[in-house]
Protein 1
Amino acid sequence: MKLSAAARLAWQIAAAEAAMARHPLIEREHLLIGMCSLHKTMSFVRFVKAESLPMEEIRTEADHVEEILSTMGISSSTLRRGVRSRLRPG
C-alpha cells in the first residue's frame, strides 16, 4: 500500500515520538500524535530546505485533519498534548 506524503510524514513523526518515549513499537497513539503534529511540523519545515517534500500536498492533508477535528470542537494541539501526557514510557 502506498502512503501519501502526509501519511509518511505522520509516520516519521510517530516513529520519533515512540523512540523518544523508549517504546519498542509505534503504537496507534504515536500515529495520532503524528497526524496532529502535521501543521506544527509544516511551520518548522518552511525554515529548512525541504525541496524533496511535496509541501502543498502535505499542507492540504494537514488542513483536512484540522477541519475534521475542528468540526468536533477539538484542537490538534490539545489532542496531541493530551495523548502524549497519557502515554507511559516504554
Protein 2
Amino acid sequence: MTGGELIGLIVSCTLAAALIVLGVLYISQIGKSRKSKTILEESNQFRFIIENAIDGVVLVDETGMVIEWNSGQETITGLTRANAVGNKYWSIHEMLSPSRDYSATIGETVRDTIVSNLEDGRLSGENQPLQYEIKRPDGSRRIVQEMVFPIQTGKGYMMGSITRDITSLEKVEAALSEFVLRDELTGLYNRRGFDILSEHKLNHARQFDIATMVFYADLDNMKWINDTLGHNQGDNALRDISLILIKTFRNMDVIARMGGDEFAVFITPSGKFTPDVIIGRFYENLEYHNRSANREYNLSVSCGVAMNDDKNNIEVAVLLKQADETMLAEKRKKKASRDK
C-alpha cells in the first residue's frame, strides 16, 4: 500500500466513524425530542470533520431519503445541499446519470438495491468501493468512487456514504497504461497491449457470437535494409509498415508491433471484411506505398490470417500461432520462387 492509499484509507475510516456517530446521534435526537435542531447542531466537533472533508459525505435514512450532504459532496456532484437533502438517494443518482436514455433505469436499479439492502444491512459497496461516472448539472463529467456502510437503527438501517472524485487519478492512470501498452517507435500497441486488448475483445465476441481473426505480417527485407542502408532507414521501414496497417484496418481493430519486424492485428470482421479482402487491401496499400513513398527501398511483406471457429473457442495465442504459420508458409513460398 502506498502512502497516498494509506492516508486515503485513514481519512475514509475517520469520516466513516464520524458519520456513524452522526447517525447514532440523529437516531437519539428523533427518539428524545421533536425539536427542529439538526444533528449537526448537536455536535460541532463532528460537523467540523464532515464539513471540512474534501470527500463527499452523505447520510441516508431508513426510507432512502438524504438527510446529510456535505460541502465535499456539493463540490463533487455540483448539487447543493438544499437540492439534495429531502430527496430520495436514487432520484439523485438518476439526476446525475451520464446517460439520459438510461437515467430512469439507473434510478430504479439504485432504488431497488438500496431499499432491499437497507432492510438487512448488507450494502453493495460496503467492502469494496463502487466506481462510476456522473454528469453534473453544468454538463461536466467526473469519475467517482463511493464507499457505503450500514448504520443500524431501531427501524432497520440507515446508510452512510463517502464519495471521492478520482477523475484526475483515472486520467493519469489511463495515460500511464497507454504509455506501457504502446510501442515507442511506431505508436502502435506493443505485445503486452495486443495481449490485453485482444483478450478483452475475444471475451466480448464470445458473448455476442461475433467472429474474430488474427492477421500476422513480417517484413521480408528488414535485415537487408538495416545492413545496407542503416538502422535509421530500418526504423523508417517499420514506421511505414505501421502506417500501411493503420490505413488497411479500422479503429476498432487492435494493431500491434509484436517485436522486431513482426506485426499482428486482432480483428472482429463484419460484412465484406473477410480474410481475402483484408489481405488484398493490405497488399494494395503496400504497392501504393512502394510507388509513391520515394524511399531507397521497396517494402516486401509476408502475411497470414487465422480465423476463429463459430463459437470463438480458439484462444488468441493459438490464433497467433496459426496466423504466424500461414505467414511463414508464404515467406517460404517467396524464397523458393526467388531461388528458382
Protein 3
Amino acid sequence: MSEQNPKQNIIRFPLSRRERRQRLFDSKDARIRTTALLRMLCGWALVLGTAMFLIANYRIFTPTSLRTLGSYIAAGIRSHDGDITTINYENETFSDGALFESGLAYADSDALFLSRAGSMTTLRYSLGYSDPAVESSTNYVLVYDRGGVKAALVGSAGAVAELELESTILNGSIGRSGRFVLTTNEHGYRTAAAVYDTAGKEVFKYRASEYYIVSAVLSPDCNTLGILAFRQNGVTLESHVLFFDVSSGKQVSDTALTDALGVTLTYSENNAAIALCDTGLYHVTRRGTVDVLLELSSQDLIATASQGSTMAVAVRSYLNDARSDLYTVRNGSLHGPFALTEEPTALAVSNAGTAVLSASGVTVYNTSAEPQWHNDDAVGARRVLMTDDGTVFLLYNRNARIFTAHSERSEEVHADN
C-alpha cells in the first residue's frame, strides 16, 4: 500500500477577502448564502449610518465640544459628596448671572462661564469686559459690556455671534428665539435700540431723537419690539411705550404715560406689555390702550423681578402688621396684595411662583402667592433666581447655592403661619 502525501489532505484557505466572500456566496448551503448576504448588508448599513451620524453631528468633534467633554470628565473626577448643591465661581467672583439650561450662566470681567451643579463648568468664553451683563433664553446666552461696545451671543458649544459696536451699550435683552436687543448711546441721537438675529446681523434699528430709552424687549414671538422711554415735557417727565414691527420697521403705536418715569418693560403677551414706572404698573397694548393695574409711589418700591410674561413687585405696606406687599402680574392680570412679614432684599419669578429673599432666608410662594417652603440657611445672597420647577438659585459673592423644598433646613410653610 502506497504512502499518501500529507499535502493532499490539506484544504486551501483563500487568502483574499474577495475570494472568501465569493466562496460563501457560491456555497451549496442556502443558509450560508443567506447569512453572508445579511452580513454584507448589515456592514454597509453600519457604514452608511456612521457616515450620516458624523455629517449630522459634526459639531461634537469641534475643539470647543471636545473641551466641553473634557470638562465634564474632569468635573466628574473632581466632584465629591455634598457639592451637588453648589456652583463655585471659577475666579471666585461674578458680575452678573442668569439661568441657562439646567445650570447657571455667569460672568466676571474676564470670562463667561456656563456651569452646572457640582461646579461642573461646561464652557468658558473669554470676555475682557469692564462691566459684563448676562441675559439668557432657552438656547442662548447674551453677554454684553455695559458702558462698553462689545457683546456676544453664546450657545452651549461656544459663541455664535460677536459684535463690536460704534456706540456704548446701555442695556440689552434677549428673546425666546435667540434674537436680541441692544440699547446704545447713539452718536447724533439721544439713544437707539437695535434688534439682531442669532448670526449677529442687525435686522432693525430705532434711533430716538427725543427719547431716552429705558428698556427695550422683544415679544414672545420676537416679531415686535417694545420700547419704554421717557422725555422731558416742560417741567415734567413723560414716559412713552412704543411698539415696532421688526420685519417691516414700521412703528405700530406710541402711548404716553403722563407724569411717569419708566423703570422696566415686560411683555405679557404678543400684543401687550407691562410697564413699571415710578407711579405704578400699566398694561399697554399695541393698539395704544392703557390700563392702570396698580398705583404706587417711587419711594414705596422695594424690589422687582420679571421673567417671561411674569413680573413681581414688592412695595411698602401701610396696612395691619405687614412690612411689605407683594404683587404679581401673570398674563396681563394683577394679583395681590399679598402681605409679607419682612422686607424683601430681592425677588425672583417663574412659572412655578415667586421667591422672596429676606434677612431671614428665602421663602417660595406658588402662583397663588401661598407660601410653600422656607429655608433660613439662604441668607446673604446678592441675587435670587428661580426655575420653572421651583428650584431656587442664590448667587453669593464667591459661589451660587441651589435650594429646593427638600434641601437641608427647608421647612414647609402654611398660609396660616
Protein 4
Amino acid sequence: MGTVTVTRDHATRLMSLVFETPEGKTIPVVLSTAEIRTVADVLESIAEPELSADALKRSVIAAIGRDPFAQA
C-alpha cells in the first residue's frame, strides 16, 4: 500500500508531500494549497495496483500542468 505524508508551511502557504509507492519508492514534491486539492482529487481516482512511481508522476503532472518532480 502506498502512503502520502503532508507537511505545511503556513507562512509560505506551500505544502510538502512525500509519496511512498507500493514498490517502496519515495517521491518528495512541493505544491501550493490549490495544487494539493487538485492532486488529492487525482489520487482518489488512481487504483492502488496502478500506484507505481511512474503512474503517480504522470497523474500529478497532468493534474497541475507542471512537473514539480523536476525541482527535487
